[in-house]
Amino acid sequence: MLKKVDASQLKPGMYIHDLSCDWMTHPFVRNRFLLTSDEEIRKIIQAGIHDVVIDGSKGLDLGHAPTLDEVRQGTEEALVAIAAAPVIVTRTTLAEELKRAAVIRHQASGLVRTVMQDARLGKAIELDNVTPVVRNITESILRNPGALMGMLRIKNKDDYTFLHSVSVCTLLVAFCRSRGMDADTIHQAGLGGLLHDTGKALVPDHILNKPGPLTDEEFAIVKRHPRDGYDILVKSPDVGAIALDITLHHHERRDASGYPDRQGEGAISELAQMAAIVDVYDAITAERCYHKGMPAAEALRKIFEWSKFHFHPGYAQEFMRCVGIYPVGTMVMLESGRLAVVIEPHETNLLAPKVNVFFNTKRNGYIKPETVDLSRPLGFGGGDKIVRPESPEKWHVDPMRFISVA
Q: Could you tell me if 403 and 329 are in contact, meaning their C-beta atoms sit under 8 angstroms apart?
């Protein structure tokens, strides 16, 4: 039986089923293994991991610990309350914004590639080239945040480093907007998001693109990138304090388990805390050659759970409302047995978004795509509900083909 236990309760002989943290945090080659020593337990605790999932059928059990199902039920109940808050209404339809978003995505990823190349050559970052891209991203978010955010969920593994920076910029701009921040702050945060991984230009390619877990020595090199990025950007006088702060502190955590300065709650700025949430969310949902991307809906639930120690709980909940409990582009199973892709969150009920249905699992075949508003009753364009998020790989379908219904 799978159970959630506090790291302080771990003993040799227990079988770790899930380290319950983002894959960039823990120092182990595998996520599932039998604990054989107190040293392994010490490494778990030192990595800032507060609770883990154990499998009592493969190792020692802990009788009074809550089951994983009980923990998940508690999370789902909390999500119902989070989903009740209103969200910002979009100004254009998803279909209208998708073409513009595709151009912006291409433009922005090319810019990040150039910035990285310049940084590697020791050249100063020219904000004259960066500012228009951030402005274009911001304007797209204002028109319809789901278009660019949904499109950026598709990443070529070879371009991950560049598209990740574009995604962090996009998500952070949307996050700031949803929290009602002023235009200048949003722009500065966008700059920070786009440039936050500049320091990775100094990480050797064989480490950055390694098709497997990093050694302790390699991980130590990667952990230098926030400081390296700050040192590169601070040489450009037009890069402001917000962008520098986000670059330097997007890997800090509330429990002081992050890096490079091991800042804790009260020391990390608001925008750096927001950037930390966005950075982890995009990283764990991305497909890498050594890491299978997590479905967006599941990733948000992980962010919510990790906010107990690593992230500001209030910001985590606001981020979930910003992107939606089921973000645009998420494939879901409906109660009717149909598969659908989420195209728009509902204004007041994030558990009942607007979706495009395209596949009947009972007949195992495609159906004529149609838009269904899950907040409406049967006979009024609704009459169905989400059962769970689904994996496109399981059904061998591409939901993004049906993100827009002609």
A: yes
In 3D space, the residue among 309, 266, 314 whose CA is nearest the CA of residue 8 turns out to be 309
Cα(286)–Cα(292) distance, integer angstroms: 7
| Cβ 140 vs Cβ 104: under 8 Å | yes
| 166 CB-near residues (< 8 Å, 6+ apart) | 105, 108, 109, 112, 137, 152, 194
pLDDT tens for the 406 residues of the chain, in order: 899 998 889 999 999 998 877 756 666 767 789 999 999 898 888 888 888 999 999 999 998 888 888 888 888 778 777 776 677 767 788 889 999 999 999 999 999 999 999 999 999 888 999 999 999 999 999 999 999 998 898 777 768 889 999 999 999 999 999 999 999 999 999 999 999 999 999 999 999 888 777 888 999 999 999 999 999 999 998 899 999 999 999 999 999 999 999 999 899 999 999 999 999 999 999 887 667 788 888 899 999 999 999 999 999 999 999 998 899 999 999 999 999 999 988 877 888 999 999 999 999 999 999 999 998 886 555 679 999 999 898 999 999 899 886 5
Residue 149, number of CB atoms within 10 A of its CB: 25
* pTM (predicted TM-score): 0.86
CB of 109 closer than 8 Å to CB of 133: no
Task: Read off the tokens for 22.
Answer: 């983002």
Which 3 state secondary structure label does DSSP give 91? Answer: coil
- Cis bond upstream, residue 313 (ω within 30): no
Neighbours of 260 (CB within 10 A): 17
Task: Count the alpha carbons within 13 Å of 131 in the hemisphere toward its beta carbon.
Answer: 7
Query: What sign does the dihedral 77-80-81-82 (CA atoms) show?
Result: positive
- Which is nearest to 46 in space by CA: 253, 273, 210, 200? 253
Joined together, the tokens standing for residue 102 give: 């595709």
The beta-carbon contacts of 103-108 under 8 Å, at least 24 apart in sequence, are 104/133, 104/136, 104/137, 104/140, 104/148, 105/148, 105/151, 105/152, 105/163, 105/166, 107/133, 107/136, 108/133, 108/136, 108/137, 108/166, 108/169, 108/194
Asked if residues 59 and 34 have their Cβ atoms less than 8 Å apart, the reply is yes
Closest alpha carbon to 275 in 344, 339, 226? 226
DSSP state of 352: S
Separation of alpha carbons 120 and 116, rounded Å: 6
